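Chain A, query sequence.
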Amino acid sequence: MPNSDCAILVGVSRYANPAFPALSGPSNDVLLMKSWLTDPDGGGLDAVNVHVIESPDPLPASAPLQAPPTAHDFLATFCGLVFDAAEKPIPRTNARLYLYFSGHGFSQILDKVPRACLYTANATRLVGDNVPGTWYAEWTKDAAMFREIVVIMDCCRDAELSLSEAIPPLKRKISDEVQKTVQVFGIYAAPRGGKAQERPIPSREGKTYSLLTHALVDALNRAPTNEKFEVTSDSIAAHIRQSWSDICGADPADPPEFSLPGITPITIVKRPTVAQDLDVSGWGPGEPVELLRGDTEPLATLIRLIGDKVQVSWKTRADETIAIVNGHITINLVAGFCILRRGTVQRAFQSGEANVVI
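Chain A, predicted structure.
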């Protein structure tokens, strides 16, 4: 069932001023993020709660300083989400807000913590109109409008000395609940002063995406779970860090930076699971059998014990001992492609598949 989470996705591919070259990735990035957010096995958002703001292609020929989207376009969408027609707040204290930005961007050179702004389509080098993504996340936290905020800044973070965040004319709201309940997870395409990159991605039909967005969606779909089958903010950050060099290949790119929540991680998504039957009748006592997700990610080591039991030592869950019944055991697995490896022999299967024997 769709949840009450919300998202604003901003992709700026076209800029009126030639100082900002056109990009190919943001329009694809927004579609990729929206696809995951509205997937019942992904973010699970209702499509009506996903608000998309993009630059038209081509941009209007006249009035370059008004080329859409502008900072006001984002402000109007944001206010329409968090306030009703009478300007009363719409608190969603059991929901999450995703703020996603793809395009050209910058950070302020004096920033002490991860922050970033996205240039809007009407920006010039002199008039640096922008949407301060981190500022909006902080405003939402202060107002305790949502339980969690995930802010994703897939843009460069050029360290600017003479350019500042364009602070919106939005009245600050401070809630007493902010320190107790609201958490923010920040994901940035590069460290301060670093460059974001976009490239054709072979695994995504050769279309061009920003590297961070590609890596993020890969992590959302493939990062390891904890013992509750949850993918957390910590596991997302760890998966992206570990896979970054493989994603970049022979052409390195500045690594992403993360601003993790406070004491406890945010649960981003809970993987669907299936009961998996395994035939262990041929396993010898003490013999280790490896279980992998995909063909590279270790999930567990299974060892048959004396007394018709199997010890399962999970990589990200608490170990368990399972009784053998008629030569079989049943374990819970995340849906997807798996491999059992016993010595030099292996068996590939889709979780939930019947009669898995090795």
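The radius of gyration is 23 Å. The domain at 273-357 is CATH 2.60.40 (Immunoglobulin-like).
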